[in-house]
Write a structure and sequence with these properties.
This protein is an alpha/beta fold. It has 2 domains: 154 residues, VC0802-like (2-Layer Sandwich), CATH 3.30.2130.30; 164 residues, Vaccinia Virus protein VP39 (Rossmann fold). Helices cover 30% and strands 27% of the residues. It is built from 9 helices and 15 strands. The chain has an 8-stranded mixed sheet, covered by helices on one side. A 7-stranded mixed sheet has the order 11-10-9-12-13-15-14, with helices on both faces. Helix 4 links the parallel strand 5 and strand 6. Helix 3 packs across helix 4.
């Protein structure tokens, strides 16, 4: 029987409730605790790595250790250091992606003599090499935010890189959507089993692949009018092994699909930041939504994400559309909105 341990997870701003809901699906023994932060989740769960690997809405997952210590120097206590190294070895053995060989630390004063000693002890007891910039296992040290106790917390990451860096993604594409947000956009659009999904302006395929991972849709179709981008999309689809995904070179404002061919549609619209131009967005958004209203069935949903919420809201008003959810999230220095529309 697996032990119940304390974990922590980083999440994106605006997504904590959804990330917590996903964590609670790990099993009846899972419990969420108050973290005091909208980007950190603290939870207890069974030490079941197969289940932890299924989490798609987290940036990072860590073992969370807490020690009664007034300062980081107290962590050199053999009892505390043994527990830290034990969890580093467990993370190394059961890493959620590939076997780590190095580690790095994140802490205030990480260049101090105290942390140099901590690094030396970890190197000695675990056999891992310290790599300040590119270490596989990330260790975070911080004083407990609970002001009523003198304690230090140690976070031991269970993966060698952020979980948002999906293994299938081998090419970087300017303006590509964070896979976590693609996963969340899919959920918020409320897909039903057997639905036909259309992803317009599919780019490098993030939304398509995140949707296909859920294994509940009948048909998944992506379109983009950039042939070079579609080549990247195809490579990512091939890497993901989801050969059922269909992709076509097509203009989102002039779709060749039949009326009512799809049950829902998703799109990471051009924001006018890295891609597109804000002055052109109103017409682009309007023409695109008119086509989606044609090809998506009545009672279907549209799931959209954009930083240019002003133009999107003007289009929604001009077309007299019903918004059933609007959520501000975070992506790479921007705060776009996810908007779900009921047709």
């Amino acid at each position: 029987m697996n032990s119940i341990l304390l974990f922590a997870a980083d999440c994106l701003k605006g997504t904590k409730d959804l990330a917590q809901a996903e964590i609670l699906k790990l099993g009846k023994d899972t419990q969420i605790f108050e973290s005091g932060s909208d980007e950190l989740i603290i939870f207890s769960a069974s030490e079941d790595y197969n289940k932890l690997k299924t989490l798609k809405k987290m940036v990072n997952i860590y073992y969370l250790l807490c020690f009664p210590a007034k300062g980081p120097g107290n962590l050199l206590n053999i009892k505390y250091m043994s527990e830290i190294c034990l969890h580093i070895q467990k993370a190394s053995k059961n890493s959620l992606d590939f076997k780590p060989k190095t580690f790095k630390i994140s802490a205030a004063g990480s260049d101090s003599q105290t942390f140099k000693e901590i690094i030396s002890k970890i190197t000695h007891f675990t056999g891992l090499t310290y790599d300040k910039e590119n270490g596989d296992i990330l260790l975070r040290f911080r004083k407990s935010p609970n002001k009523q106790i003198d304690a230090w917390e140690v976070f031991v990451r269970l993966s060698s890189r952020p979980l948002s860096q999906r293994n299938w993604k081998t090419k970087n594409f300017v303006g590509a959507l964070n896979p976590i947000l693609a996963n969340i956009l899919y959920d918020l659009a409320r897909p039903k089993k057997g639905d036909n999904l259309l992803n317009v302006m599919c780019g490098s395929g993030t939304i398509l692949i995140e949707a296909s991972e859920r294994k509940k849709l009948n048909r998944i179709v992506g379109i983009d009018n950039n042939e070079n981008v579609l080549k990247i999309c195809k490579e990512h689809i091939d890497n993901s092994k989801h050969s059922e995904i269909e992709i076509y070179n097509m203009d989102a404002t002039s779709l060749t699909f039949k009326d009512n061919e799809f049950d829902l549609a998703l799109s990471d619209l051009p924001w006018g930041e890295n891609i597109g131009n804000i002055k052109d967005n109103f017409k682009l958004y309007q023409d695109t939504l008119r086509e989606l209203l044609r090809v998506v069935k009545q009672e279907g949903n549209l799931g959209l994400i954009t930083q240019d919420i002003k133009n999107l809201e003007l289009v929604i008003k001009s077309l007299n559309l019903k918004v059933i959810e609007k959520r501000k999230v975070y992506q790479g220095g921007f705060y776009p909105y996810i908007v779900i529309i009921k047709i």
